[in-house]
Amino acid sequence: MKIPTDHQKYGIVIDSGSSGSRIQIYRWEDQEYTKKSNKDKKVLSSPPKIVQEKGWTYKITPGISTFGEPNKVKKIWTDHYSELMKFAEGIIPAEKHNETPVYVLATAGMRLLPPKKQKKILKETCSSLQKNTKFYIPNCKDFVQIIDGETEGIYGWLGLNYLMGQFNEYDASREEHESIGFMDMGGASTQIAFVPSSLEEIKKHDDDLSKVTLRNVNGQTQKWSVFVETWLGFGANEARRRYLKQLINLSLTNPILGTEINDPCLPKGASIKYDNDGTTYDIQGLGNYEMCIKEIYPLLMKNVPCKDTPCLFNGIHGPKLNFDKDKFVGISEYWYTANDVFQTGGEYNFQIFNERVKEYCESDWSLILSNSEKGQYSNLDPEKFLKDACFKASWVINVLHDGFELPRLGLDVSEDTNASQEKEMEKLKNTHVPFKSANSVNGDELSWTLGKILLFASSQITGDSKKDMNIGIYPSEISGKEFVPGGIIGSSAHDSDDDDDDHGVGFGHIIYSIIFIFLLFFFIYHFGRSHLNKYVFKSRRFRIPKPFKQQVSKAVSKIPGLNKYFKNIIPYNSLSEQDTMNIHLEEGIMPSASTSPTQSPNLAGLRTRSNINLADPSDLSDDYGNPSRNFGFLNKPFVVPKKTPSGFYYSNNNSRDSLHRVSSNSSMSNKLRNVD
Hints:
The chain is of the alpha+beta class. It has three domains: about 5-230 and about 445-500, 2-Layer Sandwich (Nucleotidyltransferase, domain 5), CATH 3.30.420.40; about 235-440, Nucleotidyltransferase, domain 5 (2-Layer Sandwich), CATH 3.30.420; about 515-590 and about 610-650, no CATH class. Helices cover about 35% and strands about 15% of the residues. Strands 14-15-13-6-7-9-8-18-19 form a nine-stranded mixed sheet. α8 (about 150-165) crosses α17 (about 450-460), α10 (about 235-250) packs across α15 (about 380-405) and α13 (about 350-360) crosses α15. It starts with 7 loop residues before the first strand and ends in a 26-residue tail after the last strand. GO terms for molecular function: ATP binding; GDP phosphatase activity; ribonucleoside triphosphate phosphatase activity; UDP phosphatase activity.
């Protein structure tokens, strides 16, 4: 049944990555209409049905990070986003524009820019979209932003499980719900997101888990505990870069080698030029697969200690992956390498993949070029992709099996006879396969942008209880990150002109505040100096740290009209502190009159306290940086502990340690490769 236009909702997510921006357009049905027109309990107990028609995605290059220069940032609308929004306007009905949200979410390319450039690009992007379109962008903070790797990973997990139907017919009375783990390997980083397989693991690692909430059409809230982690520098391209640097560093121990280096992960007869610290190295291929696997292993950093067990790699602690029960899907490089070069995309079998990678790595480069000309490798550019294919496939094997400890299914297949091999392979077909690579599910593109729009669509549904949690992502307790809302919460909308307030207090406000404080000190000093002496006794325990006094003196000396008065304040403070010392002497805190004037008081205690850094460093010199014999801790009072009602004393210090669709063999998939 066709949905009436009045009850159709649209949403736009623009994935602004390092190589370009891809717009994804989605549609779903108004939930009130669904409730009235559909009484199917399966539909009502599931999230909104998100639809993406064929051709509702479009990509342009280059990435928005290239607009960071002052003379380019103003062109970000005309040279970039105007084309994407024109594409969207041709699909979404004009009467729906003002209620259609546009999310511009930047990833790896923007994360690498300095904060000032990031802010300029985001501000110009938001203001130009608000000015030149009628789409729904009520504020810049939530709708135009840079997302971190963990958020991107959870969006991917949401998109995958939605397409696999794991959120359908959610039963809140059950404590355990099955889901599918998400793995993603880009050019710069690799990610994983999954729900631990048992309640015991969830409770054990509760502090490490993010809480993700969705809402069904009937208003019921789904709650999921998801572990998500990102390894920056462990993507395929960055791992390759680290590997080459590792080879170069090893070669430096033997000067005889010079600038010619052998690479076991490069096919025999292939060579590349690599620049490192101003020196160009000639990398020659050895084509030794076994050696390649061993040379790559140290890049996993398995030797880095973890805070707790189990440990994955590079010191990252997380719940144990139960591959006997769980299923995982890998996208991006997991799919491109397996499918485009080795034709093993889909269900992963270690034996088949391992044999094809070994054969490729140990092939002569001339044979690989010949096969490429025959179209054997999905028409990939030999120089850009095929030379690195052996390394990338070997890196995938290392990450899967040594990093995540995925079992090597198919490794122990018998080799006695062809008959026994066929029997064993038939057995494997009926075996639980814990890992698959994919770029789509049932014809729908597998993209993390779907996860974002799913959160927005479900956030528009009214909950069946006032106590329901807001829809979105509640990061783990140990992450210290803020809640990521699925949509607008309350009346948080504001104009883009207020965007500066989202990033901290303006510099001008800080200057005015400092000047006001200086004027206040000046007034107190100038008009109240004659009254200070009688308060010296009461204020003797208060000491202004020397670094603060020096900075204040330096800053105020530059303010016209104040410098001639303020220059005497620091010396006067020194005299006041000397008066305080005299008062201490009178009270008997210092040595008695019988003690020699040159004798240091309580010398043993002084050494001990100094050794454990209780002496204030500022007290070891005077206000002008000259060495002093006055040790500040003698001037500090003992802290009187507070008494609890039960009679115990306690301290105040309670610190704790705390895709436009792409066919599997289409050359179009090349355009999607190596996106961070």
